Amino acid sequence: MRTLFGAVIAAFLALVLTACGSSSAGTADDTLKVGATPTPHGEILKYISDNLAAKEGLKLEVVEFSDYVPLNPQLQEGQLDANYFQHQPYLGDFNKEKGAKLTWVESVHLEPLGLYSSKVKDVASIASGASVAVPNDATNLGRALKLLADNGVITLKEGVGTAATERDVTANPKNIAFKPLDAAQLPRSLEDVDAAVINGNYALEARLNPATDALVVEKAEGNPYANGLVVQDGKQNDPLVQKLAKLLKSPEVKKYIEDTYKGAVIPA
């Protein structure tokens, strides 16, 4: 009986040790699950995964989203370990509106916002009463209006900057009709409107190059809209997160961005 009891105890201990070993292996597999929009974020992460991560003892599981809206909620809910798609003003708006605690880790690159058109070749040719599609999220709407103001299409209330809304337009000499749309829909809107202000990543996905195809484009100097790595508050010093942040700022990634996107994406 004692022998049988001892065997049962031994088997139980073996199972516990196996479970603990499995748990340790799961912790030690160094996998970081990162959500991203496909271009350029997903492409940059894939480059890191294929060429750099193993040397740092890091494995990346990259989950791509064609629409960036779900990325912060999924990070907040713990379905992702990190995300890479947004700039700090967008993150600040999300945290404020949702009562979330997501934290900026590292700036990586800038995707200049641009004004595109399939109907006119320059800003001066935009006709009276023209329709212009703009992003419908607050941060990028203000950014789009500032781009138009900086290029003489409209005038904004003094000092409003990128916090602008349509209510802050003080002069609209061409009677531009603004068409707010989800950012992902903006490239497809070009056939239906006279021009559209398009986020850099969605322009690239639509094979539009901000450096060559945009009528006007944001200036990089002093631009607060660099895209970067974001995690839940308290996770910013996690070793895996820090490994990825280091790689995102590495000379190899800087060269990859410059060689691949040729000015359409600018290292931060």
TrEMBL record:
InterPro entries documented for this protein: Lipoprotein_NlpA
Range of residues in the leader sequence: 1-25
Keywords, comma-separated and alphabetical: Lipoprotein, Membrane, Palmitate, Signal
Name used for this protein in its record: Lipoprotein
Primary location: membrane
Location of this chain's protein in the cell: Membrane
Native organism: Nonomuraea recticatena
Family under the similarity heading: Belongs to the nlpA lipoprotein family.
Topology relative to the membrane: Lipid-anchor
